[in-house]
Amino acid sequence: MASVIHVFLVFLHVAPANTVSKRYGSQINGWVFPFFEQNWRLFAPDPESVNRQILARTAHTESDGSVGVSPWFDLTAVDGSAVEHHVFPSHTAQNMLRRAWSGYADAHGGDDSVRTERAVMMRKYLANIAADRLAAHRGGAFDFVQLRVVTRPVAAPGSAAGDRPPKPSENRLLPWWKVTRHAK
Q1: In 41-109, at which residue ranges do the beta strands (DSSP E only) sit?
Q2: pLDDT grade for 148, boundaries at 50, 70 and 90
Q3: One Pfam family this chain carries (predicted)?
Q4: Residue 9 belongs to what H/E stretch?
């Protein structure tokens, strides 16, 4: 029964606008996004023209009221390692963080202000991914997470830059987000 409902909701999502999809659009989108989103990239891939490094840090309030902030942790390096050291890496290991960032950037634009329900959902999704990965790789408790995204253009093959990575074209610092308390 669950698979029939899933197929029906995905069908309503990809079908042309109709009475049912207009009336129940928020419920349909709530089911489809971000896990079952449909796109045509399989047939017309859009290769990345930039490399993004997504870093995260945590904060927690000490018993004396002071705030402790952790050093930055490279979430992208963890993903890269998971892909590099597996013969058959999962699609999730390759794309979850990257797609979460793309969805966040599309929904928020450049100012990180929330204007739609989708933007709220993408912020929570990205914050949860970061919080879960930080909890898995670091000990300690935390209540807040902050992300920094460093974007660098992909160096052209045989470029004169040699082994130096290209200079960042964007260094975006996101605001602190409250997350469900994580402790390990």
Answers
A1: 50-61, 67-69, 73-74
A2: very high
A3: DUF5819
A4: helix 2-14
What is the distance between the alpha carbons of residues 93 and 54, in angstroms, rounded to a whole number? 14
Name which of 134, 151, 152, 156 is nearest 143 in CA terms.
134
- The per-residue pLDDT for range 19-68, each reduced to its tens digit, is 888 888 888 888 887 677 666 655 655 566 788 899 999 998 888 888 88
Q: Are 150 and 171 in contact (CB under 8 A)?
A: yes
Answer yes or no: are the C-beta atoms of 91 and 79 closer than 8 Å: no
Residue 161 has pLDDT above 60, yes or no: no
DSSP assigned state of 70? P
82 pLDDT more than 60: yes
pLDDT value at residue 58: 92
Do the beta carbons of residue 168 and residue 120 sit within 8 Å?
A: no
Residue pointed to by tokens 């975006």: 172
Count how many Cα atoms sit within 13 Å of the Cα of residue 37 in the half-sphere of its side chain: 15
**3-class state of residue 13 by DSSP:** helix
Q: Are strands 170-173 and 142-153 parallel, antiparallel or unpaired?
A: antiparallel
Dihedral pair phi/psi, residue 84, rounded to 5°: -65, -35
Residue type, 133: R
Residue appearing with tokens 């290769």: 47
Residue 129 has what pLDDT? 92
CA-to-CA distance for 118 and 25, rounded, in angstroms? 12
